[in-house]
Amino acid sequence: MAGGGAAASALSSPWRALIQRALDANAHLRHSTYFQLATVGAGGRPANRTVVFRGFQEHCDKIQINTDARSNKIVEIRNCPSGEVCFTELAHLYQYSWEQFRISGSIDVIDSSSADPTKLQHRENAWFTSSVKSRLQYLGPQPGIPVLDDEHTKDVHLDPSAGPVDAFCLLVLDPEKVRHTFFSPSLCWCCLTAIRLLNFWSSAMFTVDYLNLKSNQRLIFTRSLNGEGSNDWMAKTVCP
Amino acid sequence: MAGGGAAASALSSPWRALIQRALDANAHLRHSTYFQLATVGAGGRPANRTVVFRGFQEHCDKIQINTDARSNKIVEIRNCPSGEVCFTELAHLYQYSWEQFRISGSIDVIDSSSADPTKLQHRENAWFTSSVKSRLQYLGPQPGIPVLDDEHTKDVHLDPSAGPVDAFCLLVLDPEKVRHTFFSPSLCWCCLTAIRLLNFWSSAMFTVDYLNLKSNQRLIFTRSLNGEGSNDWMAKTVCP
């Protein structure tokens, strides 16, 4: 679900296949779908927390995150609707190597008060895609308030066919800038040749030299802001 | 080095032993010392990136990060000297469980222009504690500028006994608020008893109930701001 592997082939964003490959390679690791979401919090100070990647929205590159509508981050995001997520994935093929994806963009908060039927449908889809166990957390007390007794350990029941509860909120980050960094130690020529062959088979769509593993590499993808839903991405290789 | 295990026993901050235990448990994983640093970037927008935890500063709980003085984050931090780091550590004893530490505070930028001899000494210590390979990256071109040719792959030489180069910068985050969240699925009573015994032996210093693993748990530690170098921390258990 989170990786959205099947949908990846139909994508046009040049960075999407890079992240898809990293996610697929780490699919056996539960934490591969965790990433960190930075927002601007109270007093203009940065806030950062780990969230779960809930996949890309259908037919686009928007990133979905489920959260509690009562959490602090909702107030923060309504006040400053920008975010940057940071994926850090191990590059298993290459020992001691890892990839980082920094994706910044605007964040849309979709809760039960949304007036847009399409957005409400996305929220409902996200609810039903979650496990029943995940849904149960939205029936607990408000996040961040002091625990006065054992009320948060009380058993709660949820009808699996019931729609999203009020506390369930879908965050949708619309990427505007994607920064990809590949950190790798120097590799021997045997490894380099093997990796080149592998990449040649799998990523003909990239014009950038993704194979320069003798040093670290960093790519910046920026979306042209020439219209709603624009998907024109410009890639630039920069010093790491 | 990064874990600072030996020093941990002399600490008074109640959160420090929690993070130390998580780091020690994950010491065999190279990425256990990676964490994400959020700052406020250009236009007041959040910025987020993975950095390497370089340990706590001697005799205190300040968190050290090495970085390139020419990177964007230096400008950002000078403009808004606040940051929040997010450690995410797997809780290996408990399957599918993980711990999150969110540590926010002010950030001090220590580069070659610092007028404080003590800070310059900390910077020099950080330089020599890094591997020679790590130091080499500060001899490369400015991070983030376009790669025009293969100049960034050129071989560079560094005298291992030479002090820090101008591009080497030490960031020091002084924690003001620490939020700890332990995410765990429901455990059977056998596991719970084993964990309770283990925790009883290892963490008598905590007054909080760290053992309530039947649900997720979240702690907030806040430092009293009643003086320079204050180390009075207040712990509060809140709903996750």
TrEMBL record, chains A, B:
Name of one Pfam family that matches: Pyridox_oxase_2
Keywords for this protein: Flavoprotein, FMN, Oxidoreductase
Keyword Oxidoreductase: yes
Sequence ranges assigned to domain Pyridoxamine 5'-phosphate oxidase Alr4036 family FMN-binding in this UniProt record: 13-110
InterPro entries (alphabetical): Pyridox_Oxase, Pyridox_Oxase_Alr4036_FMN-bd, Split_barrel_FMN-bd
Record-linked SUPFAM superfamilies: FMN-binding split barrel
Pathway the protein contributes to: Cofactor metabolism; pyridoxal 5'-phosphate salvage; pyridoxal 5'-phosphate from pyridoxine 5'-phosphate: step 1/1; Cofactor metabolism; pyridoxal 5'-phosphate salvage; pyridoxal 5'-phosphate from pyridoxamine 5'-phosphate: step 1/1
Gene Ontology MF: a single term: FMN binding
Protein name: pyridoxal 5'-phosphate synthase
Organism from which the protein derives: Eragrostis curvula
